[in-house]
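Why does residue order matter? Because the sequence determines the fold. Keep that principle in mind as you read this record.
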Amino acid sequence: MQISGRCHCGNISFCLYWEPDPQKIPARACSCSFCSKHAGVWTSNPDGKLLIATQDPSLVSNYRFGTATADFLVCARCGVVPVVTSRIDDRLYAVVNVNTFEAVDPALLRREPAGFDGEDRSARLARRKDHWIASVEQTRAGSINERL
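Structure:
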């Protein structure tokens, strides 16, 4: 299944290949203050492939907080956060925000609360390596469909 998503204005977009087609898509509603304020509900498939594209990189703000081990890609034009990335051992991992999906049946989403308070840095990075998308590529918009 190919899942497309984007920020509101389309400056940040993504294509996620999820194989095999999911019977359900886990959607973790993070309880941290940033995700609560930005409607961050995240999903990932460790076996998936993700391509992130930006039309104007100067309008992408990489926001870090807490352990400063993840970059929240915030569109400076519309304020939406469609993707979070984390570089671990020279590899880029990511999760995507289900609230930015386009043309995905909402019945596939299994929303559950998630909280990571009290998780130390090493446990957080180990969890991401196990559960986040491990095949991630960033490119300029326009070539996104050619790359996947």
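The domain at 2-147 is CATH 2.170.150.70 (Metal Binding Protein, Guanine Nucleotide Exchange Factor; Chain A).
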